[in-house]
Fold each of these.
Amino acid sequence: MKDDCQFCKIVNGDTSTQFLYENDTLVVFKDINPHAPVHLLIVPKKHIRSINDLTQDDKNIVSEMITIARDMAKKESISSSGYKLFFNVERGGGQIIFHLHLHLVGGW
Ligand code: AMP
Ligand code: ZN
């Protein structure tokens, strides 16, 4: 937990953000400013700044983020129509929240 991190606060349950899914590793919630009919964020509980900061120990976290994103797409009924999964990395890559998160967008 990083004190000044908005997503650490969310993950920690310090905000009113509703989780669509939660397990020991991660949480899933709706993006507050959706760019698609379905726009979810898959967020690890561990504070990791960005993809640049991943270590060997984080391999399982990233793998789980992707498989849960796949499961959430199915739950949201966008599996067969299709969707995008992406990470923004650092400012030049469009990252504005410096706590790792995977975007799931689709439903057009
Ligand atoms: P990124 O540009 O990859 O850092 O994406 C950060 C995303 O977090 C943006 O799409 C924001 O709309 C979203 N966001 C920021 N604050 C919140 C919040 N409190 N709850 C849900 N989504 C948020
Ligand atoms: Zn954080």
Note: The first strand starts at residue 21 and ends at 22.
Amino acid sequence: MTMNVGIDKMSFFVPPYFVDMTDLAVARDVDPNKFLIGIGQDQMAVNPKTQDIVTFATNAAKNILSAEDLDKIDMVIVGTESGIDESKASAVVLHRLLGIQKFARSFEIKEACYGGTAALQFAVNHIRNHPESKVLVVASDIAKYGLASGGEPTQGAGAVAMLVSTDPKIIAFNDDSLALTQDIYDFWRPVGHDYPMVDGPLSTETYIQSFQTVWQEYTKRSQHALADFAALSFHIPYTKMGKKALLAILEGESEEAQNRILAKYEKSIAYSRKAGNLYTGSLYLGLISLLENAEDLKAGDLIGLFSYGSGAVAEFFSGRLVEDYQEQLLKTKHAEQLAHRKQLTIEEYETMFSDRLDVDKDAEYEDTLAYSISSVRNTVREYRS
Ligand code: CAA
């Protein structure tokens, strides 16, 4: 009998500032409907220089971990493509800030937006071999393309934390994942570059083509058809992206299946519309959004997940919802977090965006957010706790 392994708890954290996409469109002399409808974004999360991927990861993980979890976790994996060090893993800092017992493995994984899924699969395999332990997986990123750049309306920031264990209380994964690797330069960030190089049309095209290829092979190997799924959740660089990919496989499906999957897609993008791209965390922010906002899902329902990381690696995998999964969700906390953010004017956003942390200058920093950067000494960031 296969062991039940999956996500026991999950939560997200986004920085406490946002820009309204209509304001951004007006400032960039673009029709607001291009951002609201064409790209599918309402708001975009923005962070000051005193908040980084460690700040987001720690706040997201704090929402879900109990004292017992801190004692049982023997592995901490951070998936990110906006790391703060070329060598040392942010997971090591996260491990200390959270107070996880010391006999644990901590490391970072990178493959663009796919890194969170690589981390999750590593965690699932570890738990299959060590059922008594727990693994903390965090996908944390800052998506920045530059002021007035083509990618600007698809920026965002934040983290998703997931506790992986046996007998999970939210979703148990099937052993059916299928990955696809293709060496393509659609989006990449050479060492030393602050912003990514991106071929927007190629990235969109590769995302859709990767999904079609993986889906076709997955359905062949797994014997699952679209009709078996209650919902599909996608990596969401901007909310129109997953929908474009989904529409590419709907032809020939029953009207009932098409309507059901499309209606669920809308539930999965509710949070991303307000936060923007979380890179590694986007697929999992979408999963949280789906589970917290779709009222007609139930235990046993089959959920498909499509992960995409430029460069490019794609993966499709699935899981079944667990009895009473609703009780594990933090819907109220998440709604409050999104509602209590401060809206920035475009001028404030541009100032915040351009004000960068200089790690070569020792300094103290003010910020009221937990786990924000309190000082930099000898290039080392210290965090409030
Ligand atoms: N009203 C309604 N819709 C409008 C409109 C209006 N007034 N004006 C334009 N639109 C529509 C367009 O018709 C288009 O819709 P379709 O895609 O359905 O045809 C949509 O708005 C976008 O218009 P453009 O294609 O002209 O947009 P653009 O040239 O400004 O580029 C982008 C959009 C490629 C997403 C760009 O923002 C970008 O490069 N973003 C970063 C890369 C990215 O996110 N790629 C996604 C796949 S890669 C990935 O997933 C990894 C990752 O996280 C980065």
Note: The first helix runs from residue 21 to 27.
